[in-house]
Amino acid sequence: MEKNLAPLEALSQYFRSDYFPLTKQEEEELARRFMERTVKRRAFLLQEGEVCRYASFVVAGCFKMYAVDKSGKEHNLLFAVENEWITDLASFYAEQPARVYVEALEPATVLQIKHDDLLDLFTHYHKFDRNFRILVERGYIALQDRLLQSISATAEERYQNFLTQYPHWARRLPNTQIASYLGITPEFLSKIRKDRVTKPGKA
Amino acid sequence: MEKNLAPLEALSQYFRSDYFPLTKQEEEELARRFMERTVKRRAFLLQEGEVCRYASFVVAGCFKMYAVDKSGKEHNLLFAVENEWITDLASFYAEQPARVYVEALEPATVLQIKHDDLLDLFTHYHKFDRNFRILVERGYIALQDRLLQSISATAEERYQNFLTQYPHWARRLPNTQIASYLGITPEFLSKIRKDRVTKPGKA
DNA sequence: TGGCACCCTTAACCTAGCGTAAGAAATACC
DNA sequence: GGTATTTCTTACGCTAGGTTAAGGGTGCCA
Description:
Oligomer: homodimer
Structural class of chain A: alpha+beta
CATH topology of the domain at 7-121 in chain A: Jelly Rolls
Number of helices of chain A: 9
CATH superfamily of the domain at 7-121 in chain A: Jelly Rolls
Strand order of the largest sheet of chain A: 2-6-4-5
Largest sheet of chain A: 4 strands, antiparallel
């Protein structure tokens, strides 16, 4: 009963510890609208061309969001583990076909809410508008930071920063996935890792 | 009286046409808290190390937001012209020193609101929370799109996309600034532009 | 206990885009 | 209206990172 909170309890806990905590009533409204779903490794929450119907909160397991370019290569945009959200906002809000995939890297459990139900929460309970505003703001800040790095930093620096900023992802993900997130090939990441060991502190 | 709305009228108009329109009272609250400011070409709204005290809405003129890397090079993160916002959210919300500059590329007029006044609007008028949630969502979507391109597209493709996605910026900005936004050197952009003319449609 | 799928590494060769330099064209400002 | 500062272009050598290919490791399930 300690490591495995009931999924909805995990979500309430999440708001309580990082956002404006919910009242009993708001928690009930939450429970009424979020649905639990378990998915296997390799299964998709979303595929290119589909409309993203749900916002998803990860209760257990691990996901990646990625796009496929015209030469067929995958480019990871985002990872999500426990207590993180994974949703293609562009598709979700505009109700247009997604240009990305969301795939489970491990067996997983998520809580999902439909677009209309979320808008409903927004209109009836001020606090959700606010909590989601803050949530998206934080995402925006993280994205801007990453964009800056991708424009201005070398692959080695980006890897280094990834390790310090996202240790919980780094510990858990295979290097192939990390390479794709950093925008380099697995082969080149391998070379970087070797060099880091060889010339450690850098003179 | 047609092209030059009063600044506050421009802001109300902005919400009216793209977001949930404001009531008379909300517009008055807006007027009470936003301050007009004019800046010369080259002047800074924000410099690295300062805390970003204001959210800024551009009424006239043109700005760039950029970061300077450790070798002294500038990297443009964002442009803003009339009816666009330019604010370092990371610094503004956390009240921490900014890592970026915001500089006027043309003589400009902005409307600015202080952090506390904005939070005040959020708590007293539900609609601002909502309008700003949507505003940030749209910014997030644009950023993600750009990140994807910077990971997966070639410099020439990025330039092409820039021209089609942001014609109003492209028309107005010098190529040096555009190059910095795309993450390439002005010299290389120049080469791309030459090639586009030489081999036009691409067989 | 063997096979299959996935992951990591190494190495040799290749290319997109950078750095530098320097002249020409355009624009800002007094 | 004229000078000074930006901006744009061209060219050439150079480096970060990609590509291809191949070998070895590891865990999983039959």
